[in-house]
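lol ok so funny story. i was supposed to be doing the assay writeup but got distracted and ended up predicting the structure for this chain instead. priorities right. anyway since i did it might as well share w the group, maybe its usefull for someone
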Amino acid sequence: MSNSTPATGNEKTKSQGRRSLCSPSRVIHIRQIPDGVTEAEVISLGVPFGKVTNVLMLRGKGQAFLEMASIDAAVSMVNCYALATPLLHNQPVYMQYSHYKELRIDNQPNQAIFSKFGFVLKIVMFHKNNQFQALLQYADAMNAYYAKMALDGHCIYTGCCTLRIDFSKFTKLTVKYNNDKSRDFTRTDLPFGDGHRTVETSLSTPFATQNTIFPSYTGPPGFAPALGFPQGAGPSALPVPGALGPLTVTTSAAPGHMTVPGIPGNSVLLVSNLNPEAITPYGLFILFGVYGDVHRVKIMFKKRGIALVQMADATQAQLAINYLNGQKLYGRVMHTTLSKYQTIQLPREGQEDTGLTKDYSNSPLHRFKNPCSKNFQNIFPPSATLHLSNIPPSVTVDDLKNLFTSKGSTVKGFKFFQKDCKMALIQLGSVEEAVHALIELHNHDFGENQHLRVSFSKSSI
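and the output, tada:
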């Protein structure tokens, strides 16, 4: 990153692994970073706890500053890593709150904001629906994942030019021309051309698109966002990567599940600060099942406020962390992070467990067992509005309102879909109410083998 206010000379550090006496800050000072660690790897330390809004690497000193979007996210990160020291390149790194309350980075007109997350292969820019939009393809799926998590909602210029980013349905871009509208950084031989592009698509594998992101620019007309072109550099100034083909998708041990190579961490989550009076393995199975297929759940026998949740793969585990860490559940703020365990062991015969460990590997309620399922395109954070589907024709508005009210929900609004009366939106009194209702009513049996499907909605009524 370019010119920044913070400098390590004023940072007061303590012994390894101990927290700073500084008051909590959105900016976290990370030290003893090994040589060769990238900005994306440093950013990956913060992603499980919330949005990362800025990063500054001090490579010569083995240090970095990481700015989180909120104090709460920074506190969760520091507290978690105080208990379990994180590793980068198999070396421990240490962190503390910075004296600085924000990272003030000088925004350059052509700053390469996407390049800091990894090598950008191709970019195509165009106008659609009166908006300036772009397709951007990374060499690695993990780079795209971190870029989306860090830059969605990010302002390119101070106070304006807000990015809206989502994964594209396209597998890869085929660029015919290197000009101001499209560029292939791996090809220096392409003509300038007229700016038209072609896109090769493949919709058969849902995770195969995660190395292509779709930033939608919402800034004022006349400004083009800096999407990854280094200052004054054309494609000839960039290194050409070796044998890079399209993203490969491999199947995991469970049939029908997809794994994106390169996503770090295991698939077992540590979930803490749970309400032991209300939580059940089934409740965690249903809630975490919104973000992936849950194979096993274990509530600790002696510490009922702590549980392990095993997802189908590391990709889904990371999604669950991003969306559920910090979510309020049964009156408590839930903490979700990766566990040190690689799998959840089932209790041995005769071992005391009292039903706290459950295996859901073959559950019919898995949302993502079909690799072509639309559920892959409808993963949203918890919200007060729920999307209902598979509603029988005989069920009325009042029936559904009464059903949710009977579970303690406050119904604020309801709307059937005009084109499909099997689907509806229901708005409840709070996000926490909606979380509870989803746990209680997903797969509710209407009779005659018709079961309600409940998920979080990106829309409101």
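The chain has a mean pLDDT of 77. The longest strand covers residues 120-128.
back to the writeup now i swear
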